[in-house]
Design a protein that fits this description.
Number of helices: 2
Oligomer: single chain
CATH architecture: Ribbon
Largest sheet: 5 strands, antiparallel
Number of domains: 1
Distance between the termini: 43 Å
CATH superfamily: Umud Fragment, subunit A
CATH topology: Umud Fragment, subunit A
Helix content: 10-25%
Strand content: 35-45%
Shape: globular
CATH class: Mainly Beta
């Protein structure tokens, strides 16, 4: 399974999508200026890049075929915010291979998955099922998975899905202690994500984080074609702060 996201080069057939992306950035700029918002953790102006999503490791929040507009900058703050979605390269791989995951564990945290439930510092992260989500299994066949509203500590809530219930490869892990200066990342598609639960991949150094998604632009999730949509990525709030 391809897990990295790819920087997208636009063709003429993508003109409508490109115009929509530019519109989204213009609206974002208006929002930032009008609200008096400031960039967090940014050393200098952010550079925007556009990526395509080839896999489903972040379903239901990022879908295959989505285009992500990302703000790329050097990560300087030693206190990242739990729940942020971030871009990063993996250890020992070229920085041209960019991955996207959600930070669930911060330096010093003890992270473990027990029977499919995320535990942080010995406490199960609260979650509530909110229906089902149409997706694909490992063989590409249509299926559905329970969708949960998960509330991370500090009030950061996100949707996650579990295709295999509590029988996935990483639904029972040892307790991981997050090292100083690093974060523990997981995909929102908990049973179809290769992330920090895999000891061969491990945690992500904060210094390796490249930036944040800001806006998602792309085709409908169900068919990969049809009406375009643009939506604010749920991590917009951690990216900016007013006042």
């Amino acid at each position: 399974m391809i897990l990295s996201i790819k920087e997208r080069e636009f063709s003429k057939s993508d003109l409508g999508m490109l115009l929509l992306a530019i519109h989204c950035l213009a609206v974002l700029g208006f929002f930032l200026i009008g609200s008096g918002a400031i960039w967090l953790r940014a050393s200098g102006p952010a550079k925007f890049r556009i990526f395509s999503v080839p896999s489903g490791s972040m379903i239901p929040n990022f879908n295959p075929g989505d285009l992500i507009i990302g703000a790329m900058y050097s990560w300087q703050n030693p206190k990242p915010r739990r729940g942020d979605v971030v871009f990063y390269p993996r250890r020992g791989q070229p920085h041209s291979l960019v991955y996207v995951s959600r930070m669930v564990g911060l330096p010093g945290d003890r992270v473990q998955v027990i029977s499919g439930r995320l535990h942080i510092n010995g406490v199960a992260v609260p979650r509530e099922q909110v229906g089902v989500y149409p997706t694909l299994d490992e063989l590409g066949r249509p299926t559905s998975a329970p969708r949960y509203a998960e509330s991370l500590p500090e009030g950061s809530g996100r949707f996650v899905i579990e295709v295999k219930g509590n029988k996935g490869s990483f639904d029972k892990t040892r307790a991981f202690r997050v090292p100083k200066g690093e974060v523990f990342v997981m995909g929102d598609n908990r049973d179809n994500s290769s992330d920090s639960r895999d000891s061969s991949l491990g945690t992500v150094p904060i210094s390796h984080i490249l930036g944040h998604p800001v806006v998602i632009v792309g085709p409908t999730a169900s068919a990969g074609s049809g009406p375009l949509r643009a939506r604010w990525q749920p991590t917009l709030a951690p990216l900016v702060r007013t006042g």
